[in-house]
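In the design runs reported in the main text, the only information available to the sequence generator was the tokenized backbone. The following block is the verbatim input for one such run; it is reproduced so that readers can re-run the procedure and compare outputs position by position.
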């Protein structure tokens, strides 16, 4: 059964069943080596970005020990869901980790950190805790594990405005790099559908969505679009790819969503609505779409079935800063931080319910669950918090 994890109002991590029941605190503010109440008063751990392991048995998060005088190094710590074990994967001093993703079999963690203006991707494995192996650096930087986890396909640039590079890399350094011959187009995260890599290359003033083997050869073109492209593959091995483009580039809305059938290359328009982000339901029969409602300065969730049925208005809300960050980089986050429960029944979000006025920002934000099969029912308030995510199983 899918479970839920969220960052609470006092920056701890809690978990619950997918319907919000059986809620319990997973972390504590006690730093390692806590020895006295006076020490606790001076220094506490705060947590961010809970990330479920593929088997749903662990939740990893970033933890910072802070005091009145300073904030310590950022630690990557995983907690077993039963609360029996805690493992510190590594500690980062001088850089700020901003994203993590588990290896497909749970044996390693990829961590994206920022030092100054540069992003750094590193990997730490369960066999060598505390040792982070550098993988790539650049601005921007996006990546995807190959399905078997042996390599990482990295899309990075040097920040100079060049188109960047696509590199298939062994994070352990035991195999040579494969640098794609075709330079990358205007898109963020490469993805895999089965053994095929899906990415973009410049073409005729736009970007051509391309499917190839993992080495970037024996490719085939799929669809050409102008602007910044987003690629989101359907779950459970379905050979469907959701594609959209922000025609005016980063920060502008995406215009419509097309579905590409990777089996035969056919294309159909799913919706023409403008949107901020979109995600597949784990059941594969609908997409969750986030749309800006400019007149209320809030966001609206839509359930968009892929069978051609009309979109369903699931509700509006004002998001937290963490949710806004997540939605801005949704095509990287969608593979690691699901907002839809595994059975496709609930979505989760953090912020303030919208409708009828402005949000009362003097109140702390809350975590809410919405039953997509009962869109007219009010959202279920789970707890105070700034960000929440489901496990994939």
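Verbatim output:
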């Amino acid at each position: 059964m899918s479970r839920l994890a969220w960052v609470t109002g006092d920056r701890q991590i809690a978990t619950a069943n997918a319907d919000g029941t059986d809620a319990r605190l997973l972390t504590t503010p006690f730093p390692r080596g806590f020895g006295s109440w006076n020490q606790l008063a001076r220094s506490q751990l705060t947590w961010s970005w809970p990330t479920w392991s593929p088997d749903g048995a662990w939740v990893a998060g970033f933890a910072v020990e802070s005091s009145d005088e300073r904030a310590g190094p950022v630690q990557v710590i995983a907690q077993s869901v039963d609360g029996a074990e805690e493992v510190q994967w590594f500690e980062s001093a001088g850089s700020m980790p901003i994203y993590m993703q588990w290896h497909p079999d749970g044996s390693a963690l990829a961590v994206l950190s920022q030092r100054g203006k540069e992003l750094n991707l590193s990997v730490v494995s369960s066999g060598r805790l505390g040792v982070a192996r550098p993988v790539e650096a650049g601005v921007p930087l996006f990546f995807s594990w190959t399905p078997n986890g042996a390599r990482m396909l990295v899309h990075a640039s040097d920040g100079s405005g060049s188109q960047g590079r696509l590199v298939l890399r062994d994070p352990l350094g035991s195999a040579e790099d494969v640098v794609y011959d075709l330079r990358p187009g205007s898109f963020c995260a490469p993805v895999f559908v089965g053994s095929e890599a899906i990415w973009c290359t410049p073409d005729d003033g736009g970007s051509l969505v391309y499917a190839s083997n993992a080495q970037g050869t024996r490719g085939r073109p799929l669809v050409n679009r102008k602007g910044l492209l987003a690629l989101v593959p359907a779950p459970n091995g379905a050979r469907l790819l959701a594609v959209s483009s922000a025609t005016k580039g980063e920060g502008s809305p995406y215009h419509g969503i097309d579905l590409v059938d990777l089996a035969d290359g056919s294309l159909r328009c799913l919706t023409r609505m403008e949107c901020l982000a979109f995600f597949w339901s784990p059941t594969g029969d609908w997409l969750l779409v986030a749309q800006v409602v400019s007149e209320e300065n809030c966001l609206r969730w839509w359930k968009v079935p892929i069978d051609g049925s009309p979109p369903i208005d699931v509700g509006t809300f004002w998001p937290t800063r963490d949710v806004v960050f997540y939605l801005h980089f949704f095509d990287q986050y969608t593979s690691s931080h699901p907002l839809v429960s595994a059975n496709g029944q609930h979505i989760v979000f953090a912020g303030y319910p919208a409708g009828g006025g402005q949000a009362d920002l003097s109140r702390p934000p809350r975590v809410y669950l919405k039953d997509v099969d009962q869109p007219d029912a009010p959202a279920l308030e789970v707890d105070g918090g700034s960000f929440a995510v489901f496990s994939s199983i």
